Amino acid sequence: MNEQIPSKPPVIPSVAPDVHRPLWSVMIPTYNCSRYLAATLQSVLMQDPGPGLMQIEVVDDCSTDADVAALVATIGKGRVEFYRQPENCGSPRNFETCLNRARGKLIHLLHGDDMAGDGLYTATAALFEQYPEAGAVCTGYTYIDEDGNFVWPGNTLLPAPGIISNWLPTIATQQKLQPPAVVVKRAVYEHLGGFFGIHYGEDWEMWVRIAAHYPVAYTPQTLAAYRVHTNNITSRYFQSGQHIKDIKKVINIIQPYLPAQQQRQLKRTAQRNWSRYFARTSDMAYHKYNRPRQALEQALQAFWLHQNKVTVYFVFKMLLKVLIRYKQGAQR
């Protein structure tokens, strides 16, 4: 593990034939999210079908905010396995460790600040049984805040459970999922490899890669919660501006996964969709994170990603806000 961000998909070997294979592996990668870990674990344990059917394991990337082993022991009471990395290796490598340590046939990679909704495991297992050709199952989800309160709903992809038609061109143009709402067969990771290339958007790349090789099933039931807070990777990358660079890279990475005759159109659509998203979230950089220069830079980067009415509007909006703020500061 000499690269914190693998340059190509890490190989995920198959499980040894003499190892017991439960149906489920709920793998919980953590790094300095101990404030939320108890709720994450409880959301899984309340649905626990027992160790014969479900592996539950926390894989910690050398957290410094708490004694994670002790927390897991207290909440898990011996039911939850724990592994600590020998040194901090970064989220893609921590995910790789999760996949390698998973013994189950179905893997739920549940980040340590997110939550599994009641019924997630029974509903997704039923969909895999109904659609054995599916490589992954995704569900409805919500966004929650630091205190677990509802913030806004996630995307609804179908009105009823089933295989998502035309999923590859849909997911290739913008992120439509969040990690806690996705369950993947371990055999799929063995075939395609693990997460690679970037820190922000590595999950989007994976969902596109899976869609290029397998059907994906979906239920609109709200069965997962993605937590929005200022200390997760998404928020930190929004503050640094790295998120736009990473998404540009993902857009290029996924092109070979797409039909040759659609690549140019889908790439432009992805650039347009992400540019609008980044332009709109420049407001968040300005108001929530109090970073006016970063907000303006984000709006400009969104404009250079794709020129459209939304990106033009936010460039001028952020420029005006920064100028007014500068003028007010000069007058004090």
Automatic annotation (TrEMBL):
It is an enzyme of class 2 (transferase). SUPFAM superfamilies: Nucleotide-diphospho-sugar transferases (SSF53448). Its EC number is 2.4.-.-. Residues 25-164 form the Glycosyltransferase 2-like domain. Keywords: Glycosyltransferase, Transferase. GO terms for molecular function: glycosyltransferase activity. It holds the Pfam family Glycos_transf_2. InterPro entries: Glyco_trans_2-like, Nucleotide-diphossugar_trans. This is Glycosyltransferase. It comes from Pinibacter soli.
